[in-house]
Write a structure and sequence with these properties.
This protein is an alpha+beta fold. The chain is about 45% helix and about 10% strand. The chain is built from 14 helices and 14 strands.
């Protein structure tokens, strides 16, 4: 089946009357800017009005997408152009009657959970190997005052990148440690490599598509006739595959200079003195750069990441260093590394603070960096899309007052664990897919309610949640 075209006016009217839309494909404007992601469920008119304001009169809805009216009926257009309605199936979920659409049955959800579990098992093994590889490298540096097995690290990262590409950001399903900060440095660098590589891949796809689309529509015939020249799809690539592996190696080694910082200083649980802070700052532009030089790693990409992952991303950004390069000259891959570094640091247990809820951190980062720089917006968009507005492992409130654990950012797929008064549920409920149009309003995520940290809600988590919420 091919996509069915629906006029933007009809789609707006459907949403106005309580309907929902998921196109199943990305929607771009004429300049190649992404207006609507294929996995986004639209239940507010404004999103469609923006598409309309960009001169788009109709939107294709793919067979694997969806269009539903206010009663949860799926709207389909047959090959003869006749529109038909397919009603949802009622299904009991832990005493709550929920309408589940035909395309997302409980069997479909169970299959998704099984796939996530399979990915998670392999991810845990690769995570352990990668963390140990980095731990070995940093220990070698401490013992030799600078030397480490570069080839072993390169081999490890090469395998990781292939896994990242094939499994589409598998590390998002990794359990987060919320009580212990042991081995934080090694785990943090592995996390940053995984997050930043996922963002880099998405940025590369989106930005390359935008430029390629622009060139296809505006490139003139070199003969001077003024007619647009036909170009092959995908002719432009911002980064090539070999670039991605090289940059990911930089993400893995970005904090390598901390091997030369006293561990007692890195793990200090009280406020740093000015002198101590200056020592820690030297891990990037001085210690890290020196380690690369001692190991004869004369690589511009690695040097940029190691030196500038704390540099400013916009003019006058506070608490940044070093300041010997204009923020406009900071490469995009370094900006990606910095966002991943901040996000993982804020959502992890540290010696001096507890882990924050991922949803809160994403919101903070978006508000801080949005509209600061035109190209940075592509990076920020790729970051939010890769991590997800509701990342796996985050805690959310539902409209009816229940708290739920996010199993998958697509949907998102959540598992309630309290009743509407905050009491832990005695029986394990079925997961709820927020992307399903039949999900009742009371069971949707309440984005206006204050978010709690993982540690604050840990005592409310039942055993079946703790099993997936804590490291195995």
């Amino acid at each position: 089946m091919i996509e069915a075209m629906f006029s933007i006016e009809n789609l707006i009217e459907i949403v106005k009357t309580g309907g929902r839309i998921k196109t199943g494909i990305d929607v771009y404007n004429k300049k190649g800017t992404l207006l609507l992601g294929k996995n986004e469920v639209v239940d507010r008119v404004r999103s469609l009005e923006i598409i309309q304001e960009n001169g788009i009169r109709s939107v294709p809805v793919a067979p694997d997408g969806g269009l539903w009216d206010g009663n949860g009926n799926q709207i389909r257009m047959g090959s003869d152009g006749v529109i038909e309605l397919i009603p949802p199936r009622p299904l009991k979920k832990s005493g709550l009657s929920v309408l589940v659409p035909v395309h997302e049955s409980s069997r479909d959800i169970e299959r998704r959970l099984q796939e996530i579990e399979m990915i998670k098992k392999e991810t845990v093994q690769r995570y352990a190997r990668a963390t140990q590889c980095l731990k070995n490298a940093l220990q070698q540096i401490r013992q030799t005052r600078g030397q480490f097995d570069v080839q072993a690290v390169e081999s490890c990262v090469s395998g990781l990148v292939k896994f990242f590409v094939d499994a589409d950001h598998p590390f998002q399903y990794m359990s987060r440690e919320i009580f212990s900060h042991d081995d934080y440095l090694y785990q943090h660098s592995t996390n940053v490599c995984a997050i930043a590589t996922a963002v880099l891949i998405r940025f590369n796809e989106n930005f390359s598509h935008t430029i390629d689309r622009f060139l296809s529509e505006n490139r003139a015939d070199p003969g001077g006739a003024g007619r647009p020249e036909k170009r092959k799809s995908g002719a432009f690539n911002y980064y090539y595959p070999e670039d991605l592996t090289e940059i990911s190696l930089g993400f893995f080694l970005y904090d390598i200079g901390k091997a030369m910082v006293p561990e007692k200083l890195l793990n200090k649980n009280s406020r740093l003195t000015e002198e101590e802070f200056q020592t820690i700052k030297r891990h990037s532009f001085e210690y890290g750069a020196k380690i690369l030089e001692d190991n004869k790693i004369n690589n511009r990409v690695l040097n940029n990441i190691v030196r500038y992952h704390h540099a400013p991303l916009f003019e006058n950004e506070e608490s940044c260093y070093p300041l010997d390069k204009a923020c406009s000259d900071i490469p995009l891959y370094v900006r990606i590394c910095k966002l991943a570094d901040i996000y993982d640091a804020m959502t992890s247990k540290r010696s001096y603070k507890d882990a924050l809820n991922q949803v809160s951190v994403i919101t903070q980062l978006f508000r801080k960096y949005v509209k600061k720089d035109a190209v940075l917006q592509f990076v920020l968009h790729a970051f939010v899309k890769s991590v997800g507005r509701h990342p796996p492992g985050s805690i959310v409130y539902l409209e009816n007052g229940q708290m739920a654990y996010v199993l998958d950012s697509i949907g998102p797929l959540v598992l309630p664990f309290t009743d509407n008064k905050g009491n832990t549920l005695s029986a394990k409920p079925d997961p709820i897919d927020m992307g399903s149009p039949g999900t009742q309003q009371l069971l949707k995520i309440d984005n206006g309610r204050s978010i709690k940290t993982p540690k604050e809600v840990y005592k409310f988590l039942p055993a079946y949640i703790k099993k997936v919420a804590m490291p195995t």
